Amino acid sequence: MKRQLEDPAFEAIKPVISGELKATEAIIEEFIQMFQLHEVASNTEAVQSDPSEEPNDEHN
Question: What is the pLDDT of residues 11-54, one digit of tens each?
């Protein structure tokens, strides 16, 4: 949609595309807040990089 805003061929419907883009961005933001996606990504990275979370090799 962002590319269409810059394309002269879509000049006649630029307001419609702009509105659709804003609506799509609002929906994405709502999903991020509703499902706390920003926190999930941060927590996943912390768990993956935490050396204390490595499995112990106690089978000796």
Answer: 999 999 999 999 999 999 999 999 988 765 555 555 555 555 55
For residues 14 and 2, is the Cβ–Cβ distance under 8 A?
no
Q: Which residues contact 38 (CB under 8 A, 6 or more apart)?
A: 32
CA–CA distance, 49 with 58 (Å, rounded to integer): 22
* Nearest to 18, CA basis, from 9, 30, 10: 10
Which residues, other chains included, contact 31 with Cβ-Cβ below 8 Å and sequence gap of 6+? 37
Q: What is the pTM of this model?
A: 0.57
